[in-house]
Every structure is written in C-alpha cells, then in structure tokens.
C-alpha cells in the first residue's frame, strides 16, 4: 500500500495533467485562426518535430509496456526488446515513404488517404478496423495493465481505479482535442522516462551491477536471456528469422497505417517536421530495452539471489511465478517513499497518454470518416460533438472488454497475438498502394475484406483448437504467412480488375524507390536522410552487441 506522501504525489500529478490538458487545448483553439474542427482534431497543423516525436513515443509506450516488458524481461530476458528496436526500421519507413503522401494529400485520417489512393469502400473498411483496434489494443489493454498496477499499489478494485483515471483522461481529451493530447503526452513522456530510469538504477544498484547479474544467469543456465536473436527451435517461438519476417508486418501497420499513432504526424507544421518527428521517436525507442525490459531481467536475478521476494505473486497455470505484477513489486520493494510516488506518476502517464491518444483518433475517424459522410454539410461544431460522443462510447465499450482480455497470462503477448491477425491485409494494401502503380481499388477492397475474415478465422481456430497445426504456429510467423497470402490476393485481383487511376490517385504512389529521397530536407544533422542513416547504424550496432 502507498504511504500518504506517495499517494499525494500521485493525486497532485493527475490533477496537474488534467489542468494542463484543459488549458492547452482550450487556449490554443481560442488563439488560432484555423477552423474549429481542424484545431480540435489536428491542432491546426501546428506541431513541430520534438512534440511529434515525444507524442508518438508516449502514445506507443503505455502502462502495458511498463508492466508487460518488465514481465517479459523476468520471463524470457531481452527477447521482447525486439519490438522496441525493430520499431526504428518501420519509423524510418514512415518518415521516408509514407509521410510525404500523408502531408501532401492534406488528409485528416488514414482511411481518408486510402480513399484517395483506392476508393470509398477501402476507406469504410479501414475506418471500422481502425476504430475496433484502437478500442481493443490502445485503450482496453492499457486499462488492463493500469488496473493491475493500481490494484496492487492502492488495494482498490481494478475496475473502479481504472474508471476514475480514464474519466479524468477523457475530460481533457474530449474538451481539449489533439493539442491537449500532444502537450500532455510530451510531459508524460518525460515523467515516464524519468520513472523508468529510477527503477532501472534501483534494480542495477541492488544487484551490484552487470557482472553479478550475468554470474547469476550463468549459475542458473540462463545466459540466453541476454540474447535478442534466438536460434531456430527456441522455446519462445521467436527465433531470429521470425522477428525479421514477422515484425515488419506488425510494425508497418502499427507505425505507418494506424490512425492512433500517425495522427500526431498528420498534425505536423510541414513535411520536414513530419519526417523528423518519427525519426526522433526512433532514437527514443532505443531506450525501452534498457529501462523497461532490462529491469525485469534484473528482477529475475534479484529473485534468484534472494534480494527480491516474489512469493506474494503466486504461480500461474504452468507452475511458474505469476510475473504480471513484477513491476509493481519492484517499485514497492526497491524504492523509498517519495520515489514510489514518482513511479506511480510514471505508470499513470503511460495509461493516460495511451488512452487520450486513442480517444482522440477514434473521435477524428468517426467525425470525418463516418459522420461527415452521411452529413456532408455538417458544421465544425457538429463534427466536434460527434467526435466527443464517440470518444465517450469507446471508453465505455473498452471497460466492458477488460474481463475477457484479463485471461491472457502475458499482456504483451496477448496484445501482439491480436495485432498479428489484424495487421496483414492493412499492411499489404498500404505497401502495394504506395509502391506499386498497378494496385487497383477493387483489389484493395477485396484484400481487406477477405484478408480480415481470414485473420479472424485463423485466430478463432488458434484459440478454440490450440492442438491443431495452426495453433502451434508462432504469431510472428502467422503474421508473415497471412501477409504473403494477402499480397498474392491483391496482385491477383489487380490483374483480374485492372487499376483505373484518377488524377488524385496517380499522384499517390512512388514512381521509383529513390523518388522519396529527392525531397529537400533541412541542412546538417537535422536532415531526415542523415538522421535515417544514423538511426540505422545505431540499431545495427546494438543488434550486433546483443545478438
């Protein structure tokens, strides 16, 4: 249970974020000359690269990551850090190949972009998938992780605590719009990183450094926990080739084609800010392996050494330590009063930033992609109201999903398991649409429909009949197989139903792979091409070290 000082810090932080969010959103809209809807949903396209990068990171790193990456570090070592470092490659793709079209086409949503490249049917389907995925992946899973933390620390009912925090988050998000979301996310990123660094240092210090940790791993025959790239047949199901084949399918959807993430880029001041922001986020994404995953590995060695009492966690169905609560256990056992409050604030930052970002993207899609379609003459006031109502409904629906999602023993694996079955057709349609002139509207529509249905069927078979061959395929490879199937489908349908470009769609694909690099960037190290090369080199070196 938290002491009064820690509880006071947590409450002060929540109220502070609420006040800042309301002030930022309302004051910005009053000062701006842009349309009310443009201000509310896209911050009047005024965002600069630091805010974009920090907001991207904050929207991505939720309480799910703080809790479940530590859990994965405890269970399997650095392995799941691949989801963080591989993100650098997909963020480079976003900056180099997708951002120019998104900015130049002036779209407010990614479904809107898909209509410009293909047709209205593709837009409608992506809207549905994007809203559903935002509710399940970005909101419900974050609520679940946050609820576990708050229940452990406060002793409160998980659902009551989550409802209170989410209502507070919804207030400034619904009232303030994207500007409030980005400003609060920037603050929350700093708080989150500070808290993560504190717990990392505490675990490192308690263990006595790197060498004592590696010695414990050696003594227990667990040196493979330090490896990011595992051999074929590894018990985790994530051999090195599954990471390099499967992650891009998940990552391109998540970072390049998911409204909740990309909306921060759509609000950029100009193309250069829109390109550099994701690259800045890519550099920050190097940190989670060291400040989110590694503390979990330290917790494992601390437990083996008797410095961390994990008996209160109990055991799971496999007889292993139920590591879901390992992060909160580290907070309460390794930190003094006062710092515990800072860590709770960091955890709340992760929950609030993820929920606020997802609610804002849902409201944007419902307003522009659904409401405006049936009410084309709708005023800005009506669009904003439709967005606010949809955000409130999404929050209620997400709360109803918590008991179902809580059945996953690993939150992070559950999250990625769902993404692996959602992402393939969307990744396929976006990639072929941007890089292949021959991708037709009919092929995109059919690929989205059939590919999504196939993903649902495979997911259902996997859960209902886990003993089948499909049930034994790792989710990374399943994503790759589904993607290859979707590519074959779209190419085949494009030959059957040849493309008929409009004047607009003819401008929304790259004529050559080098064309994206022709855009003028800033001079010096701030140039997007220079930053892309530096990020590639840094990530490559890290993979070599932790291979």
From TrEMBL:
**Which Gene3D superfamilies does the entry mention?**
Sodium/glucose cotransporter
Entry's transmembrane regions: 6-26, 47-65, 85-104, 125-150, 156-175, 187-204, 238-257, 278-303, 339-362, 383-406, 448-465, 471-493, 528-546
Any single GO CC term annotated in Swiss-Prot or TrEMBL for this entry = plasma membrane
Instruction: Look up keyword Transmembrane and say if it applies.
Output: yes
How does this chain sit within the bilayer?
Answer: Multi-pass membrane protein
Looking up PROSITE patterns in the UniProt record yields: NA_SOLUT_SYMP_3
Q: What does the record give under GO molecular function?
A: D-glucose:sodium symporter activity
Q: Which family does it belong to?
A: Belongs to the sodium:solute symporter (SSF) (TC 2.A.21) family.
Instruction: Give the protein name, as stated in the record.
Output: Sodium:solute symporter
Which species is this UniProt entry from?
Answer: Pedobacter psychroterrae
